[in-house]
């Protein structure tokens, strides 16, 4: 049986490579809007982030998301992305054993 190649993408926050399915895609649409692409299929220029809020904050601080999308990103868009990011795994309460 043939082994399928898993596509890897680099997080613009931490600069580590992960399987494409494990990352979130931020898209600059042809209309000029910046959106979070949960399916990874939207048209436009894309950049990938880990599913951690810390990676988004690092990308904001370093302006690496702006470089990847080749556009300036207003603060309100960053706030919208922070709100729509999935919660970190560490914030989930662990069940009692």
Automatic annotation (TrEMBL):
Residues spanning the membrane: none
Record NCBIfam families: RNA_bind_RnpM
A Pfam short name: YlxR
Record lineage: Bacteria, Bacillati, Bacillota, Bacilli, Bacillales
Protein name: YlxR domain-containing protein
Ranges of residues in domain YlxR: 9-83
CDD domains, A to Z: YlxR (cd00279)
């Amino acid at each position: 049986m043939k082994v399928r190649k898993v596509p890897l993408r680099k997080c613009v926050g931490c600069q580590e490579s992960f399987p494409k399915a494990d990352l979130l895609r931020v898209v600059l649409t042809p209309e000029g809007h910046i959106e979070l692409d949960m399916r990874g299929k939207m048209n436009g220029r894309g950049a990938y982030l880990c599913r951690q809020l810390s990676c988004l904050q690092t990308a904001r601080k370093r302006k690496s998301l702006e470089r990847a999308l080749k556009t300036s990103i207003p603060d309100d868009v960053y706030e919208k992305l922070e709100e729509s990011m999935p919660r970190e795994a560490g914030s989930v309460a662990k069940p009692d054993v």
